[in-house]
Amino acid sequence: MLLCLLALPASAWPQSGPTTGSPEYLGSFPSAEKVRADIIASAGDARPEEIEGRVEGRLRTLANALEHSWKTGYTNRETGLPIMGIGSAPPAAKRLHEEYSQQYVAIYRNANDKYPDCGLPTKLLYFIGLRPCKLVNYRLARDDYDGTYRNNEAASIEIAQLYFPEAVRELFVETSGGDGKYMSRHQVSVGKEQRQAEQSRQRAEAFWKQAPRLVPRALALFIVALFLWLAWRRARPNGPRSKDRVNPIIDIEDLYLFARRGRVLGAHERTSLHAETTTTTSGGGGYMHQGSGWISAPSSNTTTTVTSTQHQTFFIREDGGSELEVKFVDLDFSVRTDNRVAIVYAGDKWSRCGIPVAAVNLDTGNWAIQRNRVKAVRVGTSESERKTFVLGSIAVALIALGYAVVGHWGPGFLVAGLVAAAVGILGGRSGVSRAAIAERVDACTREIAAGR
């Protein structure tokens, strides 16, 4: 009597909910033909290979549930859980499992014979939304339910809601492996909240294990975006030359130097000072011991550095009668009222205008060039240089994309990346050097001073 009372709770617990032996559970499994019909009815604009993949994935998930719904009588020594298998299932479940298996194996063999494998370049097109490979389309559609993404809980829930009554939906999700484990309520008494917490912990652990590999791939994708952006910016043409603005110098022959001559009406000079003070402390220390010893005070040294900037403004009446105002900074140029001067400008031959870069005193022969103004002359990039830079940038982007897909830098990737980067950087440099512009400005200024 005592043994019967002790065994009563254990025997009563499995009856607290629906079991895999319930008629409503086994009777809810659809036929293979109905699975295909339902997939086709909800396919929308899906491609034929995608429909085949979805049918196979759903059939595999249903077969998984049948395989893990009945005990075999054996126990796993490591986990202590009963081992499940289709061998101990009812005849109706075996027949249905055999039907599922024959159908999804036939789909699998037909797909691998019918759809050719695609190379890496074709597979890379999936990153930009193109899907030309039928074999990849089939596998992705199938793996939503099985394969790479086995134990897909979302797919199991979708099937449970489609075919099973509410009372046995969770049971189907558990037995199909949709929760990440083949454990039904008849195998282990683990609450749903505990199982979900365990799944979250496992996902977090998997993420942090993969993080060291994901960071370099994320950096590679950033390099892809950066170099594609650089290529897009450099690929834009220089645009039409305008007469209303200063255009960039593409070739040294595009440089246009001209002088505006006139008499100085007045000159204004001012100096701005900038002081910077630095204080350093050194010394100090010593000791005291029973009234003896020494102590030295620290010493401070303060240094003040003063820099000055000279601003010059010239008011000039040109030979044609118009008045001109010109400003220079730190230009070593001496001039007085009523001196005749020439202001040298550097620009482009299309607009025939530019910025003041030098001044010549036509009375004394004194001249000066403001070097920072010469460096400010706009330079552009020729068509050939732009194309070279664009090709180099795209090459670097493709190489980084290859790393993001493959997951490692092969020797070929590394060498090709260095070559492409060098080509892109060197090709992106302008063919017009600042030294050549400065040389032309010097020659023009000296010529004006000599022929005054």
Give a written overview of the molecule.
- Keywords: Membrane, Transmembrane, Transmembrane helix.
- The chain crosses the membrane at residues 214-232, 388-406, 412-432.
- By secondary structure, this protein is an alpha+beta fold.
- Among the domains are: 15-190, no CATH class; 252-274 and 302-380, OB fold (Dihydrolipoamide Acetyltransferase, E2P) (Beta Barrel).
- The N and C termini lie far apart (131 Å).
- It has helices spanning 2-12, 23-26, 32-41, 48-67, 91-114, 120-124, 134-143, 153-163, 166-175, 192-235, 371-375, 383-406, 411-427, 434-450; strands at 71-75, 82-84, 255-289, 292-318, 323-329, 340-348, 353-361, 367-369.
- The strands form two sheets. It has a six-stranded antiparallel β-sheet with strand order 5-4-3-6-7-8. It has a two-stranded antiparallel ribbon with strand order 1-2.
- 27% of the residues are buried.
- Strand 6 (340-348) and strand 7 form a beta hairpin.
Order of helices and strands: HHHHEEHHHHHHEEEEEEHHHH
Radius of gyration: 41 Å
For the residues shown, what is the average pLDDT? 76
- Report the biggest beta sheet as strand number plus sense, adding barrel if it closes: 6 strands, antiparallel
What is the helical fraction, as a range of percent?
A: 40-55%
What coarse outline follows from CA principal-axis ratios?
elongated
How many β-strands, per DSSP?
8
Beta fraction: 15-25%
- Name the structural class: alpha+beta
Strand order of the largest sheet: 5-4-3-6-7-8
Distance between the termini: 131 Å
Pick out the low-confidence regions: 1-17, 182-191
Number of helices: 14
Keywords: Membrane, Transmembrane, Transmembrane helix
Transmembrane segments: 214-232, 388-406, 412-432
